[in-house]
Specification:
The chain has four helices and two strands, in the order αβααβα. By secondary structure, it is mainly alpha-helical.
Length: 76
């Protein structure tokens, strides 16, 4: 059984340009429970930068923004 690394998940996300909730949770679990090296940390940092710059879209951010828009709409 091959152990998937943080950088492998990051590579998948970067190629897709989209961070799903599933992948976000997978990365969170991996960072909390597995051993990772400097290449994994570097890959994760690059993913964070890509998400902040909009190069990678985040499903969780889209859900949050939709919830805010619904609150604004419903309060009118």
């Amino acid at each position: 059984m091959t152990c998937i690394r943080v950088r492998d998940v990051v590579q998948e996300v970067m190629a897709a340009g989209y961070l799903t909730l599933h992948k976000e949770n997978q990365l969170r679990r991996m960072l909390q429970t597995t051993h990772y090296d400097s290449e994994d940390v570097h890959a994760f940092a690059n993913l964070q930068l890509a998400a902040m710059s909009g190069k990678v879209k985040q499903e969780s951010r889209e859900i949050y923004q939709l919830a805010i828009m619904e609150q604004v709409y419903n309060s009118q």
